[in-house]
Amino acid sequence: MKIPLNARVQCKDGPGGRVVQVIVNPIARKMTHVVVEEKKLPNVERLVPIRSIVETGGELIYLDCSRQELGQKPPLIESEFLWAGIPGLDESHGYLLHPYVVPGRLMTKQESLPPGELDIRRGARVYATDGKVGWVDEFVVIPTNGEITHLLLREGHLWGCKEVTIPISVIERIAERTVHLKLDTRGIRALPSVPVQRSWR
Questions:
Q1: Measured between alpha carbons, how far is 39 from 41 in angstroms, rounded to an integer?
Q2: Which residues contact 180 (CB under 8 A, 6 or more apart)?
Q3: By CB neighbour count within 10 A (0-12 exposed, 13-18 middle, 19+ buried), where does 147 fall?
Q4: Which of 41, 87, 107, 153 gives 164 a disulfide partner, CB atoms 3.0 to 4.6 angstroms apart?
C-alpha cells in the first residue's frame, strides 16, 4: 500500500482534507499515523492511525471514518494559553497597571507526537553516504501492521524528475526531517526508478 504525501483524503461521507505528513517509529521502522489537514477551516492537522486507512488509490487515501469522526481525532498541534503576567502580580491585579501595561495571555503551540516517534513531511531530505540525493515523496507500507517496506525518493528538478524505489534495508536511520541511506549516489542510481506523473504536484 502506497501512502502518498499530499494526497487527498476521502472519508466515508465525502472529502476530508489531505495528508501533510506521516508519523514513524524510527526504531521499529513502522508508520503509525498519517497527519490529515482537515478540509474545513481552520484546517486543523489531525493524527489518524494507520489502521484507519481502508485503501489507497492514485491520488486518494480512503479512511474508515466520517468527516465528523475525523474532526474528533487528536490534533497534531495543541494550543495552550499561558498567563504572561508581571512578577509579583497575579491575574487579578492587571487593572492596577491600566492604561500603561495590561498583562495578557500568550498562546503557545506544541506537537503532540506519540513518545519516541518522528514526523516526516513530504520533501524531507534524503542523504546518501556522499551527500544529498533528493527528498521523500511516498512510503510503501504493509497495511496490516504499518511496516515500511520502501520509500519513494524523488530526485531531479522540475523537468525530468523521477522517483527511485528505496528498500527499507538500505536506510541507515530516519531522523527529524531527514533520511540517511547506506548507499552512495552511484548505488542509488542503480535502483529502479519511475517517472513522476501526478496531477496534484
A1: 7
A2: 126, 127, 171, 172, 173, 174
A3: middle
A4: 153
